[in-house]
Amino acid sequence: MVSLQQTATLSLQSNLFPSGRAASRNPLSATIPSGPRRRGAHGIRMSATVATSYAIALVDLAKANNTLESTSADVEKIEKIFSEKQIHEFFVNPTIDIEKKREMVDEICKSSALQPLTGNFLNILIDAKRVDVVKDIVKEFEEVYNKMTNTEMAVVSSVVKLESEHLAQIAKQVQKLTGAKNVRIKTVIDPSLVAGFTIRYGKWGSKLIDMSVKKQLEEIAAQLDLGDVQLAV
Predict the structure, then answer these.
(1) Is the distance from CB of 196 to CB of 212 less than 8 angstroms?
(2) What is the pLDDT of residues 55-79, one digit of tens each?
(3) Does 110 lie in the same domain as 39?
């Protein structure tokens, strides 16, 4: 029996790479669960399964076409693009015509310099009505990519943008802690930290190094037994 993952990969290989737009009726949509979105724990597992299938298929295609690194860079761009509320809502809105969504993908590809592979992949998600899981696909893609390349992902949050030399030092420290061959840094601006920075790494960011003033203030408040008293900064 062919698994969902294998079927998704085969369908993508046969439909993603012909030049031009993806076909309006894509066989991939028949291999991925569709219909009403389910809520609750079961619905979350369903979305994770779908996202994993798409992510592995994209990784396999990128490997086959020797574009794994550039595809990984595109996936990072997609994460930032779809984190914008208006863009995400546009693509998941069922009342907006598919052709308009395709046109928007063309604009995104041009403005963000995405590969044709990536643009066609987004069109497949549109055809299959699965743009709603694009953020999960990004996470799953990164997980597969990181394992494949022995790469540790570290998310560095700070109040202001850190200098490149500081990020390089952080990458070296994470490499020492994890033994990973490579370290990729993602930066996030978080004004709530007051000053300093935090580093999250490990599977799903399970490990934390907190060098923020916010953390220091919380520790001081705990030592002084201030409870819920708000500290003015």
Answers:
(1) yes
(2) 999 999 999 999 999 999 999 999 9
(3) yes
Close Cβ partners of 12 (under 8 Å, ≥ 6 residues apart): 28, 54, 57, 58, 60, 61, 121, 124
How many angstroms separate the CA atoms of 50 and 31, rounded?
A: 10
> Domain containing 45 — which CATH number?
1.10.520.20
* Residue 225: per-residue pLDDT: 64
Burial 41-61 (b: 16+ CB within 10 A, else e): eeeeeebebbbbbbbbbbbbb
Range of the domain at 219: 152-223
Q: In what order do the strands lie in the sheet with 197-201?
A: 182-189, 151-158, 197-201, 207-210
Let me know whether 158 and 65 are in one domain. no
Q: What is the pLDDT of residues 25-52, one digit of tens each?
A: 443 344 344 443 444 444 445 556 889 9
> How does pLDDT run across 108-165, given as a tens digit for each residue?
999 999 999 999 999 999 999 999 999 999 999 999 999 999 999 999 999 999 999 9
Q: Which two tokens stand for residue 227?
A: 């409870």
